[in-house]
Amino acid sequence: MKVKTLLIIIAVIAFACIVIPPAVSENTDLRSGIGNSLAGNLIEQKKYDLAVMTTDWVLEADSSNLEARELKVDALSGLEEYELASEMQKYIIADKGASTDKSDLYKLAELDLKSGNLAECVEAYEVIVSMYDLPSADAVTSGADGVSCSYYEKGSVLLKLQRYDEAIACYNSVIEANPSDSKAWIGLGDAYLFKSLYDQGQLKDMYKELGKIPSERDSSVKRMDISSFESHRKAVEAYQKAVEIDPLVYPAVAAKIMGSYEKTVSSYQDILENL
């Protein structure tokens, strides 16, 4: 939008606020029409602070105006006020009730992720998955791309929560229905890789504690099953499968594998140094 057009729109809202007689200004429909239209245009122009002011002007007359509240969430997101945006989005979803759709929950999940509320982010994705009538594998088979997307996103957040087994289950749900999905194989490889790296950290802690006299050992550090390093092998196999399906992913996958080997060598070096 040209600057001239934007200035005209701002002039309209100023006119509505100052010049229009109170009887007309208090007309909530008129106020909503002008304000929401302007807020949408301001967001497109990345004038998020002005968009927040505009939506507040609309909400002063009608605090339940759904469009204005949704626009304010977008504007707050643009300002990186993710916690405030998340809280408002939760109220919107609560008010919508049964009419809440997946896009509402996707927005909430994204806001929770950006604000660091990872547990709530996972909950949002779990609700999205549960909104499909068919069982997960059948839903993916039927061509419900939204289900696959839900599993991908949920899996990535579970990785951030170090809930690796659950992330593995998410990606396996897609792979079981569509073995040729290279994206799912990469996600599965990531889950196994992070699980492997986590286990290596646990292994280092275990050996570090074993080097101490029994009375000084941290009881919270427990012995672990060395066979858990099987997850690293599974990660490599998953990445290789992804490359077989789509050779174009090779550069990214190769970098992951090389990085994991370097991390493994570093972990063993640290273990030896602490023996």
UniProtKB/TrEMBL annotation:
Residues spanning the signal sequence: none
Keywords of this entry: Repeat, TPR repeat
UniProt-listed Gene3D superfamilies: Tetratricopeptide repeat domain
TPR repeat windows: 148-181
InterPro entries: TPR-like_helical_dom_sf (IPR011990), TPR_rpt (IPR019734), Ycf3/AcsC/BcsC/TPR_MFPF (IPR051685)
Record protein name field: Tetratricopeptide TPR_1 repeat-containing protein
